[in-house]
Amino acid sequence: VAHIIIVGNEKGGAGKSTVSMHVATALSRSGYRVGALDLDLRQKTMGRYLENRLAFCLREGFDLPTPEYRELPDIDPKDLAEGENIYDRRLSMAVSSLEESCDFILIDCPGSHTRLSQVAHSLADTLITPMNDSFIDFDLLARVDPETNKILGPSVYAEMVWSARQLRATAGLKPIDWVVLRNRLGAQNMHNKKKIGDAMEDLSKRIGFRVSPGFSERVIFRELFPRGLTLLDLKEIGVKNALNISNVAARQELRDLMKTLDLPGVEL
Amino acid sequence: VAHIIIVGNEKGGAGKSTVSMHVATALSRSGYRVGALDLDLRQKTMGRYLENRLAFCLREGFDLPTPEYRELPDIDPKDLAEGENIYDRRLSMAVSSLEESCDFILIDCPGSHTRLSQVAHSLADTLITPMNDSFIDFDLLARVDPETNKILGPSVYAEMVWSARQLRATAGLKPIDWVVLRNRLGAQNMHNKKKIGDAMEDLSKRIGFRVSPGFSERVIFRELFPRGLTLLDLKEIGVKNALNISNVAARQELRDLMKTLDLPGVEL
Ligand SMILES: Nc1ncnc2c1ncn2[C@@H]1O[C@H](COP(=O)(O)OP(=O)(O)OP(=O)(O)O)[C@@H](O)[C@H]1O
Ligand SMILES: Nc1ncnc2c1ncn2[C@@H]1O[C@H](COP(=O)(O)OP(=O)(O)OP(=O)(O)O)[C@@H](O)[C@H]1O
Ligand SMILES: [Mg+2]
Ligand SMILES: [Mg+2]
After folding, report:
1. Which of B10, B146, B217 is facing A43, going by the closest CB pair?
2. Torsion angle, CA of B157/B158/B162/B163, rounded to 10 degrees?
3. Which of A86, A133, A125, A81 lies closest to A106, judged by CA?
4. CB A20 within 8 A of CB A129
5. Among residues B111, B260, B131, which one has the least CA distance to residue B203?
6. CB A2 within 8 A of CB A35
7. Cα dist from A29 to A35, A66, A218, B135, whole Å
8. Rounded CA separation B85/B95 (Å)
9. What is the distance, to the nearest Å, from the Cα of residue A30 to the centroid of all Cα atoms in its chain?
10. In DSSP terms, which residues pair with B88 in a beta bridge?
11. Chain A environment of B132 (Cβ under 8 Å)
């Protein structure tokens, strides 16, 4: 049965859709069968990213490995069981339509608190939480003492993950492997990096997540969306500068993330 | 009557709360009476930022100029008029409680599409829309042709602003002064900057907004949240390095934004 990867963080702009697209495409490029769902029904950043990819391949005559994107099916409310939530049904139908044919299902969550996102977190075999290296982003994971930066207690998002974990434990499912990824790391700012790093270390022991080596701030993550490309595709499509220093370093960061995820059966 | 400044963008992580905090505090520091509302009722980034500021001043014995933050009042649903939306009432009560005593009311919106955010946009005298310098963020303003980067048409957020403008026109109110701010600009990446810049120029003429000089990517925007400080406060509280090169440049960027906003009666 497919291994389910959820990419979530209630904080907006942490890098969920960017990470989703890169992890899903990296798995496709390694030959795995990958399904993709986008639970941000209005923005559909990952959905549009994958649509742009298919349009680019059609237009330019490329055949790039591409995750299989599905919209959530429309359901007639009359078909729901008594008291069943329509979003729960739409999500479970989308997941089961991919489960047989895929090795992995990657689900991108919106940057807010929705029922779809909550239910998706309870389906997670692996949960990836990207966050900006900032105390504004950190505030949604945990409250810190402003003087000592010591953790005072978990915040709304950490509590939501906690209750997803409890749901799984009650249902006798495997625990969620929770990986937090520091994103948009600056080249300098050693002082802030250390403060955030220490707080992350402290928090990871208290609420149980693993910290992945991060992604640096790179323009390559901001310019490829219109063509649906990721940094791993550049060599294949023959882009000039595909392997400049920054892109080589970015590929290494993505490879490090894939190694940290330690997905079942994946050899990179 | 108070001038209402809305900071909005459906895209998560564009910099709304960061810009809200800096604009509101800059006005307070210039002696204006400023009210602040946070419509992201769960994350409350600006609300928490201002709470941290008050706690810091109390703890350290400072008296920093601080916008007056209000929570939306709780309403008994029985008190609503027939068919009235409870959020509309909560927002209009919060605004009118500040209108008499303030020169400016600054309202921070969530990074998603909510009723509160929609109504707030129709109250805007000035609308500030921060965005990351990225085609992922740009996609919520407009669709672009992947080959030519020409604008194909407005996206969901631009359409929402458009309908807020029409509501105001029908009600005989002043048009919204819409200012888009490029945020987290990198030091290099001239190629991507030019592509985004050209697309912004093209779009600003089609849908009618002004483009403000941007904010660069700076660690100062990520580290001061626990103490509720902004870069304008550093000199007053006697922080070492308050006026290093990056902070002096950041102060200039904030001043340029304030000039671009051209708020009634504000001389900087
Ligand atoms: N490592 C990076 N370097 C540079 N820019 C990045 C990086 N990661 C993400 N970005 C940019 O940051 C912005 C936010 O990223 P993204 O949209 O993936 O976040 P998100 O968490 O999915 O946001 P939302 O909450 O709206 O769903 C985008 O403009 C993206 O291009
Ligand atoms: N110019 C900047 N330089 C560096 N970091 C920045 C800058 N502007 C914002 N940030 C950081 O980017 C992240 C997103 O900013 P912020 O939370 O203000 O955005 P937002 O639009 O309010 O997000 P949301 O959609 O969650 O409400 C935060 O971690 C913040 O510290
Ligand atoms: Mg997203
Ligand atoms: Mg915000």
Report:
1. B10
2. -20
3. A125
4. no
5. B131
6. yes
7. 13, 8, 22, 23
8. 16
9. 18
10. none
11. 13, 222
Q: Which residues line ligand 1 (CB under 6 A)?
A: A 12-18, 40, 43, 45, 110-111, 183-184, 215, 217-218, 221-222; B 11-13, 111, 132, 134, 136-137
Task: Specify the pLDDT at position B219.
Answer: 93
Q: Do A144 and B226 touch (CB under 8 A)?
A: yes
If DSSP codes are grouped into helix, strand and coil, which group holds residue A180?
strand
Residue B241: per-residue pLDDT: 81
Over residues B34-72, the pLDDT tens digits come to 999 999 999 999 999 999 999 999 999 999 999 999 999
Q: Do A217 and B186 make contact, defined as CB atoms within 8 angstroms?
A: yes
* Residues sharing a CB contact under 8 Å with residue A129, sequence separation 6 or more, in sequence order: A7, A8, A9, A14, A141, A157, A161, A178, A179, A180, A181, A209
**Strand duo A68-69 + A34-38: pairing:** parallel
Question: Closest Cα partner for B189 from A189, A253, A222, A215?
Answer: A222
Tokens 């483009």 label which residue? B211
State the residue for tokens 């309202």: B107
Report how far apart the first and last C-alpha atoms of chain B are (Å, whole number). Answer: 21
Q: Which two tokens stand for residue A130?
A: 């990207």
